[in-house]
Amino acid sequence: MSERITAVSDGSFEQDVRNASGEQPVLVDFWAEWCGPCRMVAPVLEQLAADHDGRLKIVKLNVDENPQTPAALGIRGIPTLMLFKDGELAATQVGAVAKSQLAAFVAPYLATA
What we know:
This is Thioredoxin. The protein has helices at 13-18, 36-51, 68-73, 99-106, and strands spanning 5-7, 26-31, 57-62, 80-85, 88-94. By secondary structure, it is of the alpha/beta class. A hairpin with a 2-residue loop joins strand 4 and strand 5.
């Protein structure tokens, strides 16, 4: 992980994502170590985190180590990116995407500053 992107777990998901306070939406990256497309998305997420520092919270959940949350959310493939706004699921993106596509995906949910 990095200083801008943190790891969450089945145990911390409610607190870190569903109960996240403030205007910041939370983008959750569901990934696994063995997943090639997941590794392709990682640097794009780092760039997005830098571009939207303070306006978007990005977290990662390893599906192999934390199977309960992905199952509860109906995740069938990875990488899956889910954006939560005010604790509610607002949007879902499945598969590896370019930075421009990911920026367009989160743009409608960012707080204007």
